[in-house]
């Protein structure tokens, strides 16, 4: 009974996604109100263009309307699922528009991770387990961090990272692989 | 292929992580998508890493979209329900016409020509025009490897069936080829195993009709006879193409 506000927000969001999967259209409005600022923030930073970001956001909620039944309630967090949808949709648009090479999210922006200010949206505040990725990523070598951040936050592929850093593809892959192995070890540390 | 497994990570986990981070391109990406669609353990790994990485997105500050975005979403999602009944009559007519005309078609080229004939350009003033303007007929013509052969696909909205012609293709007795639709999430959906040299009709799986749009990606993989075994990854991609509205 003693639920934290974050847990309550997650449960409410999960319930709304389930209602949406059951065909309750009003649930989409509630989900939009609870999450659109967060998801739009993601689209906007990745795409760097308000109009493109709004189009991506629109796609995310229309997809959600069609695919709410695909949300697995056993997953850690409905907001993580939605944020990932928004990230993927924005990156798709970025690639379709050929913008990755110019990099809507600069390396500096990708590094701009003020850990202690994470909880900008109080209702969907993350718990400690979620924050582990921030901590563990910060423990990697700078070049490993940079590659992982530019991929996930900036939409860069291996090929683009290799081109940008002017190194062979095999070098960038080994670098990322070593980084990911360390990342996994850190995240899974009891 | 990834160069080598990172220490302490299985190749499957590494591929899942690379997929989540968006590092993959080309054949590696298609392989990961095929595994996501068919390999529950891989899908679980992807979900786990998505949940792990998603908090990184919290470094992006929230921002408010214009109010009209919600209006657009509202009408796009409400419209689905309201338009359906209005379109049923027109779709039924389109379907009947399609059945009648495709009954005459025996080869890929002929089938494609028929589709072109009943396309929106030629039918603006008929009852099916309103439907085809919103949901155009789709065609894809996929070259097979370095051969001059092509796989010809046609899809009529509302029909839930895909016409597939593989004229000229011959069976090698060892492999089959399986056709997949890549949905907007990047997931692969099997449409069926190609019967070499024949005109076939594939039923569109429930709920997949929405993914048949202009630009939808199609992938052909090489599989053991009978198609991809349930407990195996999808085979190598031998051809790919996309639907175009006609």
UniProtKB/TrEMBL annotation, chain A:
This is Sigma-70 family RNA polymerase sigma factor. Residues 32-97, 136-185 form the RNA polymerase sigma-70 region domain. Pfam families: Sigma70_r2, Sigma70_r4. NCBIfam families: sigma70-ECF (TIGR02937). The lineage of its organism: Bacteria, Pseudomonadati, Pseudomonadota, Alphaproteobacteria, Sphingomonadales. CDD domains: Sigma70_r4. It comes from Aurantiacibacter sediminis. PANTHER family: RNA POLYMERASE ECF-TYPE SIGMA FACTO (PTHR43133), RNA POLYMERASE SIGMA FACTOR SIGZ (PTHR43133:SF62). It comes from the Bacteria. SUPFAM superfamilies: Sigma2 domain of RNA polymerase sigma factors, Sigma3 and sigma4 domains of RNA polymerase sigma factors. Belongs to the sigma-70 factor family. ECF subfamily. Keywords: DNA-binding, Sigma factor, Transcription, Transcription regulation.
């Amino acid at each position: 009974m003693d639920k934290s506000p974050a847990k309550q927000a997650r449960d409410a969001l999960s319930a709304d996604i389930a209602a949406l999967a059951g065909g309750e259209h009003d649930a989409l409005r509630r989900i939009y109100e609870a999450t659109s600022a967060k998801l739009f923030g993601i689209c906007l930073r990745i795409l760097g263009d308000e109009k493109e970001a709004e189009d991506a956001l629109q796609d995310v909620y229309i997809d959600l309307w069609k695919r709410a039944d695909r949300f697995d309630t056993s997953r850690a967090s409905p907001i993580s699922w939605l944020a990932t949808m928004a990230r993927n949709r924005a990156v798709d648009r970025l690639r379709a528009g050929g913008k990755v090479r110019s990099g809507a999210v600069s390396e500096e922006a990708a590094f701009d991770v003020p850990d202690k200010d994470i909880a900008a949206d109080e209702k969907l505040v993350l718990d400690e387990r979620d924050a582990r990725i921030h901590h563990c990523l910060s423990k990697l070598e700078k070049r490993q961090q940079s590659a992982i951040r530019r991929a996930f936050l900036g939409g860069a592929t291996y090929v683009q990272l290799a081109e940008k850093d002017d190194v062979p593809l095999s070098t960038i892959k080994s670098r990322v692989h070593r980084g990911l192995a360390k990342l996994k070890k850190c995240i899974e540390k009891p | 292929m990834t160069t080598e497994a990172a220490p302490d990570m299985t190749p499957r986990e590494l591929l899942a992580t690379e997929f989540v981070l968006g590092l993959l391109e080309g054949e590696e990406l298609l392989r990961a998508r095929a595994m996501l669609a068919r390999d529950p353990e891989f899908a679980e790994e992807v979900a786990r890493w998505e949940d792990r990485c998603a908090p990184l997105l919290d470094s992006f500050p929230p921002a408010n979209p214009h109010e009209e975005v919600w209006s657009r979403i509202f009408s796009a999602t409400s419209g689905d329900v309201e338009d359906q009944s209005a379109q049923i009559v027109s779709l039924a007519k389109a379907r009947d016409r399609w059945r009648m005309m495709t009954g005459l078609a025996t080869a890929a080229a002929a089938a494609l020509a028929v589709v072109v004939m009943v396309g929106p350009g030629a039918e603006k003033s008929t009852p099916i025009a309103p439907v085809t303007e919103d949901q155009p007929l789709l065609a894809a013509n996929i070259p097979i490897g370095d051969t001059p052969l092509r796989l010809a696909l046609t899809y009529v909205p509302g029909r839930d069936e895909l016409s597939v012609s593989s004229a000229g293709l011959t069976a090698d007795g060892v492999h089959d080829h399986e056709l997949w639709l890549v949905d907007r999430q990047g997931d692969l959906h099997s449409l069926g195993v190609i019967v070499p040299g024949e005109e076939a009709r594939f039923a569109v799986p429930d709920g997949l009709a929405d993914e048949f749009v202009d630009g939808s990606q199609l992938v052909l993989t090489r599989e053991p006879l009978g198609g991809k075994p349930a407990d195996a990854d999808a085979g190598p991609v031998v051809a790919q193409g996309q639907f175009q509205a006609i």
